[in-house]
Amino acid sequence: MSLTLHIDADQWRGRVRRYVQDATAAGVTVVPVAKGNGYGFGNAVLAAEAARLGVTTLAVGTYDEVAAATGEFGGDVLVLTPWRPWLTAALGDDRLVHTVSRLEDLRQLAAAPARPRVVVEVLTSIRRHGIDPGDLADVAKLLDDVRFEGFALHLPLGDDHAAEATTLARRAFEAVPAAARTIWVSHLTAAQAATVGQATSAEVRLRVATALWLGDRSGLTPKATVLDLHRVRRGETYGYRQRRARRDGTVVVVAGGTAHGIALQAPTAAGTLRQRASALARGGLEAGGRALSPFRVAGKQRWFAEPPHMQCSMIWLPDGVEPPSVGDEAGVEVRYTTTTFDALAWD
Ligand SMILES: *Cc1c(COP(=O)(O)O)cnc(C)c1O
InterPro entries, per this entry (predicted)? Predict the structure, then answer.
């Protein structure tokens, strides 16, 4: 009973490897990111893939994710969530590179006996974490007592923010001239990152997940096992909610429910009315009490018979459509950052 991600192993691994090689050829060091649900693969799998790639550093999202990464990856681990004073236990691990985003935290790390390895995050237009560029002179005074490994810049998605990265990196290197000329950027293409490196004479490390792991989804095929089928006559009831069938059809029970993240919607970032309408059409359209499911049966996206259960979903198949058989696999459209698969199949 599985929601399975089928992976064309040669194609996927080949493309991931080419991404790293192309970036390297452009003078940019790739730092793969494994965090959250592991972009559908799981973090341990991504850490193992990073090890295969031979990269020196892997980034994880939080301190809680370090253990899964270090089980599979022997190199350095950058933690993207900034260090905070209660995380003293992490300071003993010499493989960890800590992200520091407040002067008070940097002071505390500078006072720690271990001389922790740190990357100093500079506040960008995202305004999530980071030391204000105006306070960088204070950073300079504290760097002797840590192992400084560069500045981090977390840039907005979308347009080319290489100019912002270049401006901030220059400010940082001016304020801290003695510092290692390394910048850790996010959300730039390898080519954009390369221009920042050239403009600032810095080594650029590109922290990247989506474009690396999910940059080409043609070799990724999510599938849901058909678990059961029930013929339902018009007027009969079915499901947790005992909905009454309005016509004859078949309830198809497929693997994949709320626990897998099926049919969960993140708040949409869609700006325009048209974008919002298309977001609705993809996953959440309620029409006559029905919602379009992400499952494809007999070549077409089908309606939920009722809202998804914990680990399976009930799909409505109208009469006239050839039903699948138990054990068949149905196609399913997923959002990779919210889906947890039961299994990966490396085909
Ligand atoms: C998650 C994260 C990334 C990876 O983001 P993608 O858009 O998936 O490449 C990069 N940098 C930081 C700081 C992150 O938190």
Answer: Ala_racemase (IPR000821), Ala_racemase/Decarboxylase_C (IPR009006), Ala_racemase_N (IPR001608), PLP-binding_barrel (IPR029066)
